[in-house]
Design goal:
Number of helices: 16
Largest sheet: 6 strands, parallel
Strand order of the largest sheet: 2-1-3-4-5-6
Shape: elongated
Structural class: alpha/beta
Distance between the termini: 14 Å
Number of strands: 12
Strand content: 15-25%
Helix content: 40-55%
Order of helices and strands: EHEHEHHEHHEHEEHEHEHEHEHEHHHH
């Protein structure tokens, strides 16, 4: 009998780089490391509806042959996976766990009473932030724990920090899925506004990440000024070595499902200050004035002001870099995932 089985979007076939896939893989790897590879099985939901058609039989095999079953579904999967796991679990009495990705669960369970009742009977609901834990407890959940997002990154050393004192133009970047809701257009507008204030190219912007809507992106890309560039994807192993070369990361997200964005961990491990929108949980993770700056969501003028403040106060930038590195260790898998994985041992 397997000790742990994990059902989630591993994307073994298409090798996606979205936040859901990355967290699912990182959590799975840490479970294997702690529990032993022979004690763990993975079940990929990537095939979508084809997986859901096979779900009743898959769920039966999982519950019959595993002590602990972990699910990490998206919205569509949450409509079906908990039901089948719970149904078969009436016969076997296993431990069911839900590792939540993103910040949309409380809104979903508020609307779907049946799923809410099922999830209340799970052994563990692991959420990324205190805000989401409180929202679920208001709905009667008593099984919620906080498990922050984590990544197995190599944290850069203090003495590897670059010197930006004479850097012109100052290099900024975004590092997320390249979609409108991540604030990509706001980032471009703010960099453009800052350069207009100065009267010359004082800052430039590099955009990294997976493009999801090629038509939308091709349209805005045609209007890129000379100081904005799309740099594609970064290999997972190269994240910190690339990001360390930037002055600050812009994260003007207004994505509805945002919770503990993985890009904030990448920034901390790289010693990179973050200028983030005051959206959902950002202000709980980016400490305003200590590891970055927080500005009102969708306010390009305020974002431009933050860029200006970050450039003009180089000592603040240096302190934020050190503070970010100090916090990064809290979000390594062996630290952040420990409490939940201990339940499997």
């Amino acid at each position: 009998m397997k000790r742990v089985s994990i059902v989630g979007h591993f994307s073994f076939t298409h090798n996606s780089h979205d936040g859901q896939t990355i967290k699912t893989r990182v959590f799975g790897d840490e479970v294997k490391r702690r529990c032993g590879e022979s004690n763990v099985s993975f079940h990929d939901t990537e095939s979508g509806w084809r997986f859901l058609l096979r779900l009743p039989l898959v769920a039966l095999k999982l519950v019959a042959g595993t002590k602990h079953i972990v699910m990490m579904p998206g919205v569509n999967g949450l409509r079906f996976i908990p039901f089948w796991l719970s149904l078969w679990n009436v016969l076997f009495g296993r431990s069911l766990h839900y590792v939540v990705i993103g910040g949309w669960l409380a809104e979903f369970t508020q609307k779907h009473t049946f799923i809410r009742r099922i999830l209340r009977r799970f052994s563990t609901i692991a959420v990324e932030t205190e805000r989401l834990k409180c929202l679920l407890e208001e709905q009667g959940f008593a099984n919620v724990v906080i498990m922050p997002n984590c990544k197995p990154l190599q944290i850069v050393s203090d003495d590897s920090m670059p010197d930006f004192d004479n850097s012109k133009p100052f290099p900024f970047c975004t590092f997320s899925r390249v979609i409108e809701e991540k604030g990509i257009c706001d980032a471009i507008a703010a960099i453009s506004a800052y350069n207009a204030r100065k009267g010359y190219v004082a800052a430039e912007l590099d955009i990294y990440g997976q493009v999801e809507d090629e038509t939308w992106f091709d349209t805005i890309k045609k209007a890129f000024p000379e100081y904005v560039h799309y740099r594609g994807l970064i290999n997972y192993s190269d994240t910190t070595s690339v990001l360390i070369g930037y002055y600050a990361l812009l994260f003007p997200t207004f994505y509805p499902g945002e919770c503990f964005a993985g890009t904030l961990i990448d920034a901390m491990a790289s010693g990179l200050p973050v200028i983030a929108s005051d959206w959902h949980d950002n202000s709980q993770i980016v400490v305003d004035g200590q590891t970055g700056l927080i500005f009102p969501t969708r306010n390009v003028d305020s974002l431009t002001d933050c860029i200006e403040r970050m450039i003009e106060d180089s000592e603040m930038n240096k302190k934020m870099r050190i503070n970010s590195l100090r916090m990064a260790g809290n979000y390594l898998p062996q630290s952040g995932f420990r409490e939940v994985i201990d339940k499997f041992l």
